[in-house]
Amino acid sequence: MEQSLKNPVQMAVIGAAHGIHGEVRVKTFTEDPLALGEYGPVKALDGRSFEILDIRPAGDMVVVRFKGVSDRNAAEALNGTALYVDRSALPDDTEEGEFYHADLIGLEIRGVSGEVIGKVTAVQNFGGGDLLEITHRNKKGVLIPFSEAAVPLVDVAGGFIAIDEMAAGLIDMEENGSPELSGSASETDRRPRGPKNAGENR
To answer: Which of 25, 27, 86, 95 has the smallest CB count inside 10 Å?
Structure first.
């Protein structure tokens, strides 16, 4: 079994078989779908490694031929397999206000006065803009907009973000028992990104 990744970032997920010669359709989470083939072998979380021999566009997906996958049965067996690279393989060419999902997940959350009040657990987007899923004062699964108003400071190197609980809609949550987002996440968004240019979660 191949060595597991220290800090895995999901790049893609394998879909259905394509044709009879072992090719598969793949949904990528990269800005440029064809960039999936630029970072060496991709891996599954169980340690399997996949070397890309050929990749070409196919609508909103790509068609990929992996080394050692030569027939439809072998291709079908890969359906649903998520593909990863280690965070260290991704470029640090992010623009100001732009972050990799993987670098945000796990960050400590501090209030504007500096007290620790939670942790980032995921980055979500349901079509209206990027949201941070957080634990907040022992409440799990809380969503806040990833905007400059709600999240005025992101310090990846320092391991934390600072949030304005009022702007994030968390004051209403504490009073009423449920979160009420103050404005859509699309207002003055920051830009968390997946493995862009390489592939989702600087």
So the answer is: 95
